[in-house]
Amino acid sequence: MTADAVTGVVLDAGFLSDLATDRRIEHEVLTDRWSWHAVSVNVPQTELVLAEREKPGRARAALELLLARCGPSVLIRPLDLTAVEAAGTMMRRYALDDIALAHTAAVAVPSGWTVFTTAPERYRPLGDAVDVFGLT
Q1: What is the pTM of this model?
Q2: What pLDDT shows up at residue 80?
Q3: Edge-to-edge, what's the strand order for the sheet holding 74-77?
């Protein structure tokens, strides 16, 4: 897949946590590429909660960096009624017990977007249903 072919990405808690800490330079290269190609950068609200729970302030720092680099291309995907229904479908179909994982999959799968993560093993229960790019 070329950078020109990517229309959207979904970021999970691992990516967001790393964005604000360890691998910031690598992440900045990716976000610059997404900005340049007007890629939709999707952040499930549930993943923000996970990043914030791990270390307070991390989700906010990650969002500030994303907004500075990608601006209006960053979309926070709320866990609204439509998303709850889609996440519930994912939970039933793949026997998931993680609402954040189900929400992320519900955002990524129908659109064919790639999930960027530092924990690709988290997506094993979904098999080939979701395209995962693991930064390890």
Answers
A1: 0.89
A2: 96
A3: 74-77, 40-44, 8-11, 114-117, 131-134
